[in-house]
Amino acid sequence: MMKAVKLGIIGLGAEGGMYAGFLAEGKVNNMVIGAICDIDPAKKAAAAEKYPNVPFYDNYLDMLESGKVDAIVTCVPHYLHPEMGIAALERNIHALVEKPAGVYTKQVQQLNDYAASKPELTFAIFFNQRTNPLYQKLKELIDNGEIGEIRRTNWMITTWWRPQGYYDQSAWRATWGGEGGGVLVNQAPHQLDLLQWICGMPSKVYSNVKYGYQRNIAVEDEVSAVFDYENGATGVFITCTHDVLGTDRFEILGEKGKIVVDDSKKITIKRLVKPESEMNATMSMNDVMKIFMGQSDSNIYSEEVLEFENVWGAQHMTVLENFAANIVDGTPLIAPGSDGIHGVRLANAIHLSSFLGKKVEIPFDEELYLVELNKKIKEENKYPTRS
């Protein structure tokens, strides 16, 4: 049995640096730093100072072929995740890809298909919010039917305020060719994953997306999307990067009650004493007026409030530890790599609806999405188109 997984960290930026720190401090069971890779000479100097005994590479293929790593994590721009994941798996190296799994579903599907041909290897995605006890509890409540069949979802997540200086710090950031989009591919992928993980994938999307609305960028900084679900439920998803006061509120309405999540810290569960459909069928207007006027003797719902603390770094360490445990002893993955395509598909559908100015069904034509994305890349005239 492998004693400790030697992880190769590709990209020593904010995320890669954080993971290196956790591993160097021994905070992740069954995992150590095997090697570090970055194309920036300044990162090489920084790594030599902080991790003098760790091999450093400026080409990730050299690292993959060095024999120094058992697994990799891809802390690089989004377009690179699929090709790096495939390159690792080709060399029988386990792959943990950062979110989002890619920019467009066609490239992510290629990664998933290749990973499926190597079932003996561990393939995972860094959806650390799936380890958040709050969202694990929320999924449990929905899966157990606590509020019955879902009728509506509403998530306003505008806590992503980013000033112009944020976008100006890197030439590839907030570009179609370099990053592949704005808030949908950079800040909100966790919420898109959680939304479909907990409530299911919408069947249709209609969006109103603003590009460079309040920032001097080519990509989206304001998104409002309306969803249809197979069971007739509806949904709304709102996000942006120009709200300095920010709101994070997720509401799920069901036939038997409502769940509200505030600031990703508190869950309020309101359970109806009788399902709404039964109330609708049996209550007279006189009974309803008594409730509205506070004259009813019976409460129509009960309320439960659950509060959660979020320890910085704990979620990321849990993903790394779970990834290592799957490699070492087969512990089930919290977020299998194949799940990464769902959030990308939802982001693509929101973009495509905006590009075409009409409602888009899921699944959509992946080639059509790529054609429209390449139009944006050509207009930008900074990067080559994609295939």
Descriptive report:
With 387 residues, this protein is α/β, with parallel strands linked by helices. It folds into 2 domains: 5-126 and 313-336, NAD(P)-binding Rossmann-like Domain (Rossmann fold, 3-Layer(aba) Sandwich), CATH 3.40.50; 131-309 and 343-380, Dihydrodipicolinate Reductase, domain 2 (2-Layer Sandwich), CATH 3.30.360.10. It has 13 helices and 15 strands. It has helices spanning 14-24, 41-50, 60-64, 80-90, 105-116, 133-143, 164-168, 189-199, 276-282, 285-292, 314-329, 340-356, 366-380, and strands at residues 5-10, 31-37, 56-57, 71-74, 94-97, 123-125, 150-157, 204-211, 220-228, 234-240, 248-254, 257-262, 266-272, 301-307, 360-361. Strands 14-13-12-11-7-10-9-8-15 form a 9-stranded mixed beta sheet. It has a 6-stranded parallel beta sheet with strand order 3-2-1-4-5-6, with helices on both faces. Helix 4 (80-90) packs parallel to helix 5, helix 5 runs antiparallel to helix 12 (340-356) and helix 6 (133-143) packs parallel to helix 8. The two termini are 41 Å apart. The model has no long low-confidence stretch (mean pLDDT 96). This is Gfo/Idh/MocA family oxidoreductase. Residues 135-259 form the GFO/IDH/MocA-like oxidoreductase domain. Residues 6-120 form the Gfo/Idh/MocA-like oxidoreductase N-terminal domain.
